[in-house]
Amino acid sequence: MSIAYWIVAGLLALFYFYAGTMKVIRSRDQLRPMMAWVDRLPLPVVRALGTVEVLGATGLLLPPMTGIASSLASAAAIGFVLLQTGAIAVHLTGEDRRIVLNLGLLATAAVTLWLATAL
Questions:
Q1: CB-count burial class (<10 Å; 0-12, 13-18, 19+) for 25
Q2: Helices (DSSP H) in the chain: which residue ranges?
Q3: 100-116 confidence digits (pLDDT tens)
Q4: Can you give the pTM of this predicted structure?
C-alpha cells in the first residue's frame, strides 16, 4: 500500500502544486483560458485557493516523508475532497459545466485518503 500511496499522492500533489502556483503568480487574464470561473471570484480568493492547494500538496508528501505528524496527510486528502466538492458546485452554478477533471480529482483525493489511512 505504501508504494500505491506514493504514486497516487505524488501525482495528486504534483497537479495541485502546479495549479496552485499558477493561481498565486498569474494574472486573471492569464488564468482565464484555463479556468473559466476565475472572473466569478475576487482575485484574493483565487490567490487564497492557490495557496491552499500548494499547502495541501505539501501536506500530502512532507509528513509521511519525514514521519512527523503523518496524520496530516489524511487531513490534506480530506481537504482536497472538500475543495473539489466546492469546485464542482462552482462549475455547476456557472456557465462552465465541465466537471470531468474535478470528478477525477475528487476520486483521486478519496483514494489518497484511503491509502493514507494504511500508512
A1: exposed
A2: 2-25, 28-31, 43-66, 71-93, 100-116
A3: 999 999 999 999 999 99
A4: 0.92
